[in-house]
Design a protein that fits this description.
The protein is of the alpha+beta class and 127 residues long. The protein has one domain: Archaeosine Trna-guanine Transglycosylase, Chain: A, domain 4 (Roll), CATH 2.30.130. It has two helices and six strands. A six-stranded mixed beta sheet has the order 2-5-4-3-1-6, with helices on one face. Strand 4 and strand 5 form a beta hairpin.
Length: 127
């Protein structure tokens, strides 16, 4: 398992909210995170999100695609590695975490896996 952590840029909050609403209203829809390069992530791994200085939840990867992908909600075209996710699992206790560019492997950040397990204890009922 190679779960990763990504940040939603402050400039993309409105766009992310628009995409989340679209996925919520369309059961066959999904959201995705585009990453440069090819991270060591597999179907079933988690993508945790830092939003406004907190890790707020995660999505579970159900498919990985490479190349160009157009967002159905916004029409914007993204290029890179696309980690597709369908289900959002919020953390019951968001974790303060400073935003960053790119992605990080959860297990390479000291004690983060332990903190996430503690924050997920009440969230497990959503999985």
């Amino acid at each position: 398992m190679m779960d990763i952590l990504v940040t939603t840029p402050k400039t993309a909050h409105e766009l992310a909210a628009q995409e989340a609403k679209f996925v919520e209203e369309n059961p066959d829809a999904y959201w995705f995170r585009t990453i440069k390069g090819r991270p060591n992530v597999q179907v079933g791994d988690r993508v945790y999100y830092v939003d406004n200085g907190q890790i707020t939840g995660y999505g579970i990867v159900f498919a990985i695609e490479y190349g160009k992908l157009q967002c159905e909600a916004t029409g914007k075209v993204y290029k890179g590695t696309h980690l597709k996710q369908r289900k959002w699992i919020p953390l019951s206790n968001p974790i303060p975490f400073k935003g960053f560019q790119g992605f990080r492997y959860i297990d390479r950040t000291p004690k983060l896996r332990e903190r996430l397990k503690q924050a997920e204890t009440c969230s497990d009922r959503y999985t």
